[in-house]
Design goal:
seven-stranded parallel beta sheet, three-stranded mixed beta sheet, 12 helices, 43% helix, binds nicotinamide-adenine-dinucleotide, binds thymidine-5'-diphosphate
Length: 351
């Protein structure tokens, strides 16, 4: 079969990557999508079950840190573009073990940049799209928003590793002329998010009548975006964004953690047919995260004005959809938390 484009998506078995891969495969049957993923604890091929048999989909198990493997992959598929999502993504894990974040997020990104630069002798029609986070901008006070020109001020090992990768991607553009685009997005939520992150962790704990750990005073603020809206934004920027540019993506949907968890409590009580107020009793204030960023908020007006992008759903609807999905998919939850299913898939793809 002849394809119009061959795109390497890294981290396609993860939370956001799997939504993006599904979207690209279904919206562009004339594109071949090669999903490269190491299948860490956060990567699950089960997330892609609905599309894994499509003729334009290929899965390659591998590590983005492995330069020789990347060289072979570029030779094999002759990609015209890369959409790079593979990363270690959880702040608490980065506090416990920064080194794996340095390896994957920094060294892995440079290995990918090198592979693209080496293989794409002619940069015409090529694109290296780097998916990043708003956490690179640091922490806000009560007011203000991050724009594309906000100075970088990362404060956790996770955000420092992502900031570093952003700088390196820009450096490859300025130094070698590699065509790049970067987007920095706020906190995502929705189906297939590993249940260590705030929203799925809370839903799972409510279901199991376990304590709901709120770090510090609970007044930390995040700007939440429905994961499908992030995938739609990446699709749009990939096709219509300007090379060399950065785009901020956000939900315009700020919540203090404690208020968000209280709404989730109401929704999940309702869905589980439990008396109102049952879940809220599980809220437990715990020791704060070290170096906890107080507030993130994105100004996404560049994306709206230049590419006409807006989030499609707001929190209440999105949280209800998310809670329902996790309650309806307890098998998925069990698989990803037990690891048994992951081991099975990992073996299947072992070379
Ligand atoms: P995730 O942790 O759910 O998925 C990461 C994926 O990368 C997994 O499938 C994992 O197996 C794979 N991976 C990890 N190390 C790898 C390696 N060395 N080689 C190959 N694959 C590897 O993460 P996510 O939440 O889907 O985030 C995806 C990207 O989006 C990340 O770059 C993250 O920084 C960025 N981002 C995330 C959010 C968010 O709220 N989750 C917000 C903004 C930006
Ligand atoms: P998280 O989902 O880890 O995303 P990030 O740290 O990248 O923003 O956390 C979102 C917010 O929720 C953050 O302020 C930390 C807080 N939090 C809790 O209060 N309790 C928890 O158990 C978790 C995982 C997070």
């Amino acid at each position: 079969m002849n394809f119009d484009r061959t795109i390497l998506v890294t981290g396609g078995a993860g939370f956001i990557g799997s939504h993006l891969v599904q979207r690209l495969l279904t919206n562009y049957p004339n594109y071949r999508i090669v999903n490269l993923d190491k299948l860490t604890y956060a990567g699950n091929l089960e997330n892609l079950r609905e599309v894994e048999d499509l003729p334009n989909y290929v899965f390659e198990k591998g590590d983005i840190v492995d330069a020789a493997f990347l060289g072979d992959l570029f030779n094999k598929y002759d990609f015209d573009s890369v959409i790079h999502l593979a990363a270690e993504s959880h702040v608490d894990r980065s506090i416990a073990n920064p080194m794996s974040f340095i390896e994957t997020n920094i060294v892995g990104t440079v290995a990918l940049l090198n592979a693209a630069k080496y293989h794409w002798k002619d940069f015409e029609g090529k694109l290296f799209y780097h998916v990043s986070t708003d956490e690179v901008y640091g922490s806000l006070g009560e007011t203000g928003f991050f724009t594309e020109t906000t100075a970088y001020d990362p404060r956790s090992p996770y955000s420092a590793s992502k900031a570093s990768s952003d700088h390196l991607v820009r450096a490859y553009h300025h130094t070698y002329g590699l065509p790049i685009i970067i987007s920095n997005c706020s906190n995502n939520y929705g189906p297939y998010q590993f249940p260590e992150k705030l929203i799925p962790l809370m839903i799972n704990n409510i279901k199991n009548n376990k304590p709901l750990p709120i770090y510090g005073d609970g007044k930390y603020t995040r700007d939440w975006l429905w994961v499908g809206d992030h995938a739609a934004a990446i699709d749009l920027i990939f096709h219509e964004g300007e090379t060399g540019e950065t785009y901020n993506i956000g939900g315009n949907n700020e919540w203090k953690n404690i208020d968000l968890v209280k709404i989730l409590c109401q929704i999940v009580d309702e869905l589980l047919d439990r008396p109102a107020g049952s879940a809220e009793k599980l809220i437990t204030f715990v020791k704060d995260r070290p170096g906890h960023d107080r507030r993130y908020a994105i100004d996404a007006s560049k994306l709206k004005e230049e590419l006409n992008w807006e989030p499609s759903i707001q929190a209440e609807e999105g949280l209800r959809k998310t809670a329902k999905w996790y309650l309806d998919n307890s098998e998925w939850l069990e698989h990803v938390t037990s690891g048994a299913y992951k081991e099975y898939y990992t073996k299947m793809y072992e070379v």
